[in-house]
Amino acid sequence: MRADARKNRDHVLAVAGTAITEQGVDVSLRDIARRADVGLATLLRHFPTREALLEALLRTSFDEMTAQAAELETLSSPEDALVSWLRDCVAWTTEYRGVTVLMAAAIEDTESALHASCVTLRAAGARLLARAQAAGTARNDIDGTDLFALVAALAWLSDQPSLAPRADHLFDVVASAILTSEASTDAPGERRPRARS
Prior knowledge:
Layout: H1 3-23, H2 29-36, H3 40-46, H4 50-75, H5 78-93, H6 99-108, H7 115-134, H8 144-158, H9 167-178
Helix pairs in contact: 1-2, 4-5, 4-7, 5-7, 5-8, 6-7, 6-8, 7-8, 8-9
């Protein structure tokens, strides 16, 4: 790709990121093109579909969240790694309003431009969950698909004006439900004191 074409593409992505943050994933492609000061045909030449635009926009974040999961596997206890990744994943998905709906659909649609990235992200969370389950610090009746669904549900809560003030509390409730009594969600690295017998 020529330098000027790459510059235009990067500019469109930056503008699209701002527009989606402000208006959600259903923002008009024509509006993104107008805000980027390019023609719609130019935008579509770089990104022929909305999903192609979102995939390009989100790919770096997907890669970062996947890499973070791998890092947490080696640096943190199983329960701390799981809760930390889950919290960061929820926070990331709330940056782009409405993206969780597209992510959930993309998991099932192998033709989606987002499919591979979403599957990789789900697998990263599933590995952290399996590690915590093997350590006896996470319940065994959920899997990576359930965890991915919980990310979507918690991100949806944060996107609802009437529920957003409760989002952090509800995250802690959900995290506590995932973990067994042997693990703590109070703070990374901290454990609740056990009752003396």
